[in-house]
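Translate structure to sequence.
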C-alpha cells in the first residue's frame, strides 16, 4: 500500500503482443518521505489513470513490486 502525490505527467501507451492489445499508464509518485517511485497500471487501470488522474493529485495505491523496482497497480483510489 502506498499513498503519494503524482509528480509527473501520465504516459499512456498501447502494447501489441500476439494479436492482443494492452494499454499501459506509467507515472511517478512522491511519497511522504520524499521518495520517488515509478508506478504502472495495465488495461482498465491504465484507462482510469489516463482519464481521471492529473499531476499533483493525491492517490492511494495497492500494488506489487516488480523486478525493475516499479509498482504494478492492482487497485488505485483518488484521495
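Result:
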Amino acid at each position: 500500500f502506498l499513498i503519494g502525490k503524482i509528480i509527473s505527467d501520465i504516459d499512456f501507451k498501447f502494447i501489441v503482443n500476439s494479436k492482443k492489445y494492452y494499454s499501459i499508464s506509467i507515472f511517478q509518485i512522491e511519497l511522504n518521505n520524499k521518495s520517488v517511485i515509478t508506478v504502472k497500471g495495465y488495461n482498465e487501470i491504465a484507462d482510469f489513470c489516463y482519464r481521471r488522474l492529473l499531476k499533483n493529485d493525491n492517490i492511494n495505491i495497492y500494488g506489487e513490486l516488480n523486478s525493475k523496482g516499479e509498482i504494478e497497480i492492482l487497485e488505485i483510489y483518488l484521495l
